[in-house]
Each structure stands twice: as C-alpha cells, then as structure tokens.
C-alpha cells in the first residue's frame, strides 16, 4: 500500500505544480493593466493582426511569406496590418499605409514603402 502511495503522490505533485505556478505569475514594475479584448472564433475564420514597422528588416522578410500564408487559407484568414514605429524614424510611412488602406490600396503601398526602404535604400521618413 505504501509503495502505491509513494508512486501516486509524486505523480499528483508533478501534475498540479505547473498550474499553481502559472496562476500566480506577476510582473514587477509600474504598469497599467488594460481590459482584455475578447476574441470570438466563429469556427470559420481566424483574425490575424500583424504589427509591423517599415523600418524593421525582420518585418520586411516576414512580409514576403504573408501571401503564402494567405494562399494556404484563403477563406479562413482575416488579415489586419497595424503599422508601428518606436520613435526612431518617422510615423509618415505608417500614415501613408493607413491612408492607402482606406482606399483599398494598402498592400500596394506596403510593397512600395518596403521596396523604397530595403531595395532602393531610400529615406522613407
């Protein structure tokens, strides 16, 4: 009986210990907790929100794979792009993209800005 108890007890501890650690996660520092955005999944489409910067080389590289991702799931993905910048550079490329997006030319503008920055090495600010 004691052998079974010694086998079961460590198993129970191993199963429930990650749950208690994860539930009490805290972040030290001063910050404001924002209300959570509720995402609703209708079982048909998934909303992808892409945060990107026109000054970011990794964002430029990732942008090349977006058509492949969209092509694999054409009816299942709703894609939204949000341009950001970290203070170095200019918000103007993001503003140009958002204005183009309003008239249905967002992807064309995105490609043009990335091409100017990374291929033609132009100042986009």
TrEMBL record:
Residues 1-23 form the signal peptide. InterPro entries: Thiol_disulfide_DsbA, Thioredoxin-like_sf. The keyword Signal applies. Keywords: Signal. This is Thiol:disulfide interchange protein DsbA. It comes from Candidatus Hakubella thermalkaliphila.
């Amino acid at each position: 009986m004691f052998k079974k108890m010694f086998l079961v007890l460590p198993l129970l501890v191993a199963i429930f210990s990650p749950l208690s650690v994860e539930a009490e996660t805290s972040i030290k520092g001063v910050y404001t907790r924002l209300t959570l955005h509720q995402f609703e999944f209708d079982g048909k489409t998934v909303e992808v929100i892409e945060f990107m910067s026109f000054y970011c080389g990794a964002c430029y590289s990732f942008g090349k794979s977006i058509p492949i991702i969209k092509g694999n799931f054409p009816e299942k993905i709703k894609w939204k792009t949000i341009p950001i910048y970290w203070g170095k550079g200019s918000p103007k490329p993001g503003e140009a993209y958002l204005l183009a997006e309003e008239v249905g030319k967002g992807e064309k503008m995105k490609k043009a800005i990335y091409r100017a920055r990374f291929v033609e090495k132009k100042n986009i600010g």
